[in-house]
């Protein structure tokens, strides 16, 4: 990676797009507008309101876990997903969408079973997988 390059990273909290030097992606960058952590190394909650803007403006890959609170395998996978997020901090953004609360985002991707993980680059789907996975499997799948 070119050390002088920057990456656009959207803030899930306020929507601002921040330019972060590529070399500093792993150093807990914060939003220039609202001060929230941009890449916390933990899953970010996305909503119908901020989903499109967030995934469309983020230059880092975004892995979205479509889940619901009543889904047992989703709850089982949650710690593994968080662990994978910590492991790939600064390289890949991990996000969660509660498909009950935010059906529009799930509908757009035609999510039929949960948990389903979709990897996006520049807002476009790169790959998807359904079913719960261990942290190591998630990291391997993200690639
Ligand atoms: Zn912000």
Describe the protein's architecture and organization:
This protein has helices at residues 51-57, 72-87, 103-108, 135-142, and strands at residues 6-10, 17-21, 44-45, 62-67, 93-98, 116-121, 124-130. It is 26% helix and 26% strand. The chain contains four helices and seven strands. The chain has a five-stranded mixed β-sheet. The chain has a two-stranded antiparallel sheet with strand order 1-2. The protein is globular. Helix 2 (72-87) packs across helix 4 (135-142). With 143 residues, it is an alpha/beta fold. Strand 6 (116-121) and strand 7 (124-130) form a beta hairpin. The structure holds zinc ion (ZN).
Topology readout:
Blueprint: E1 6-10, E2 17-21, E3 44-45, H1 51-57, E4 62-67, H2 72-87, E5 93-98, H3 103-108, E6 116-121, E7 124-130, H4 135-142
Parallel strand pairs: 3-5, 4-5
Antiparallel strand pairs: 1-2, 4-6, 6-7
The protein binds zinc ion.
């Amino acid at each position: 990676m070119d050390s002088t390059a920057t990456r656009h990273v959207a803030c899930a909290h306020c929507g601002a797009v921040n330019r972060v030097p590529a070399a500093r992606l792993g150093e807990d960058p914060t939003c220039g507008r609202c001060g929230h952590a941009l890449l916390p190394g933990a899953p970010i909650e996305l909503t119908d309101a901020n989903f499109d803007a967030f995934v469309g403006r983020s230059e880092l890959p975004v892995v979205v876990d479509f889940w619901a609170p009543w889904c047992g395998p989703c709850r089982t996978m949650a710690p593994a997903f968080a662990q994978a997020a910590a492991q790939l901090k600064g390289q890949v953004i991990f996000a969660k969408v509660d498909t009950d609360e935010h059906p529009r985002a799930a509908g757009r991707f035609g999510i039929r079973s949960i948990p389903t993980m979709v990897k996006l680059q520049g807002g476009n789907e790169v790959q998807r997988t359904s079913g719960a996975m261990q942290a190591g499997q998630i990291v391997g799948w993200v690639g």
